[in-house]
């Protein structure tokens, strides 16, 4: 019995080690292209920002010192932006201030943008 199990274990170990190496090689060879993230921003995120945020958060003296009128500024502040827009309407720090809560679809678009990876 040992003679039939031993070769099986060796083959199984080689298979597992081979799979781990393939995964690592695939991760190393992934392109670091931000085109899809920038396109998503232009098509889906920017209209939300322009309709709800840039009225106050743009120009030379944006409200709270936070400009939200460019890809990089939105990308860099998305964590805090999501915190503010997901608060209950009327609560402290809720955004957009003096307006209605964003729709579930708009909140989902912002969350997807936040989760997109780009180097």
Write the layout of secondary structure elements.
Blueprint: H1 2-28, H2 35-52, H3 71-85, H4 104-115
Helix pairs in contact: 2-4, 3-4
What's the gist of this structure?
With 119 residues, the chain is mainly alpha-helical. It has helices at residues 2-28, 35-52, 71-85, 104-115. Helix 2 (35-52) packs antiparallel against helix 4 (104-115) and helix 3 (71-85) crosses helix 4.
How many DSSP helices? Answer: 4
Task: Summarize the biggest pleated sheet.
Answer: none
Rounded to the nearest angstrom, the distance between the terminal CA atoms is 53 Å
Helical content stands at: 55-70%
Q: Structural class, please?
A: mainly alpha
Number of domains: 2
Q: Name the average pLDDT.
A: 84
Task: Evaluate the radius of gyration.
Answer: 23 Å
Question: What's the shape?
Answer: globular
Contiguous runs where pLDDT drops below 50 for at least 5 residues: 20-27
Residue share in β-strands: under 5%
């Amino acid at each position: 019995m040992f003679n039939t199990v031993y070769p099986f274990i060796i083959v199984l170990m080689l298979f597992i080690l081979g799979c781990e190496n393939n995964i690592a090689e695939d991760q190393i060879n992934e392109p670091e292209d931000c085109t899809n993230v920038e396109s998503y921003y232009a098509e889906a995120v920017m209209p939300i920002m322009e309709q709800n945020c840039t009225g106050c958060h743009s120009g030379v003296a944006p409200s709270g010192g936070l400009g939200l009128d460019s890809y990089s500024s939105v990308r860099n502040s998305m964590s805090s932006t999501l915190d503010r827009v997901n608060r209950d309407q009327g609560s402290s720090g809720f955004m957009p201030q003096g307006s209605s809560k964003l729709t579930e679809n708009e909140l989902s678009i912002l969350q997807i943008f936040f989760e997109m990876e780009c180097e």
